[in-house]
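U., I forgot to send this yesterday:
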Amino acid sequence: TPATTTRATTTPATTTPATTTPATPATATPAGPSELVFEIGVEELPAADVQATADAVLADIADRLASTHLGHGAITVHASPRRVAVLVASVARREQDRDEIARGPRQAAAFDADGNPTRAAEGFARANGVSVAELTTTEVKGVAHLAHRRRVVGRPAADVLGEVLAGVVANLRSPDKNMRWNAPGLSFARPIRWILALLGAEVVPVVVSNLASGRTTSVHRSDPYPRREVKSAEAYMGTLDGAKVIVDRSRRREAIREQVVPLAKEAGGSADLDDALLEEVTDLVEGPNAIAGHFDRSYLELPAAVLVTVMRKHQRYFPVRDDRGSLLATFIAVANGPCDHDLVRAGNESVLRARYEDARFFWTQDLQRRPEEFRADLERLTFAEGLGSMGERATRIGRIALALHDELGPADPGGQTRATLERAAALVKFDLATQMVT
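Result:
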């Protein structure tokens, strides 16, 4: 998955050093191009929506800017659970002035046989605020048309961007499920809570539904200053860095890796950095804070697949293995932002202990029954409407396997291979009736 979504035409401007204090708005207005930062602040997004939203916003804002006459450089979109941030380099201060030609009726239909203007010509002239005599002609595919050439003065960048950015917010949609809140006309995966829009040091006025843009962003809720003012677009990334918020997804992923690896080494092993889990955790936190926890070694008697499934799927923990690949009684959790490590560690260990107790109970109960008993229980599980039970399905699978062996299988002196296959056919799918699976 791409860590940062970018459409490059020029190199983005360099961000300023991090700051942890509220900024003082600047008043100077530069004459040349400036960087644009546009942040859409939301309640925590589902992990699956973070990168998808970044991709959608990039495509939308690129198309909308292309339909204007406003010069700009590279467009970069970052996303994290609580924000989507658009950075556009070298945005011109106003659109380019340009000549536009309005095409009217064919010249043959614009004048009668005596050379007098027809109603079509007069209507076209009236619509453009000029007289028929002031109209010119243009040729389209070899056919002459009346035309009006006018000089269009470019609009200020703030006016153009206000419309463009409001359209991006109004067009936001989740690829999965959308919700509504007390903001008429808006619908997204999670409520949109704030908008930040800065062109250089100036606030770009963006109004959509009941939201209006400003220069204030939100950081971690536990931060002493959960709301921070951003001095300028160039200072945006530094302001968030100073609040321990990493908006750049690639940096966030690497920060997780850099924290998890040494913690696993301290525990005497190496972290099981599953790519899918790493990507998911990257989109669950804004300020990664890895914490090593431990569980009772007696749980290692359970199958490793059970322990790993609980850690990865249910808790989003990274397992730790020794140099032989065996699990250690250690896990690594990733908290969001600064926190009390001892308190968070104790809470995660408690949750994992409860899940492992459940797993041990189910595993112990399952071991007290023979596989044939579970196989009989499959008759109570429906496979699909019209296709019978899971037990009937298992029987069909066994019959087909034996038939294929008899017709296509290799030579089997003594019938040893067929006997093994018969045993497998008698037990196929039995695990679906175990407590561990259900």
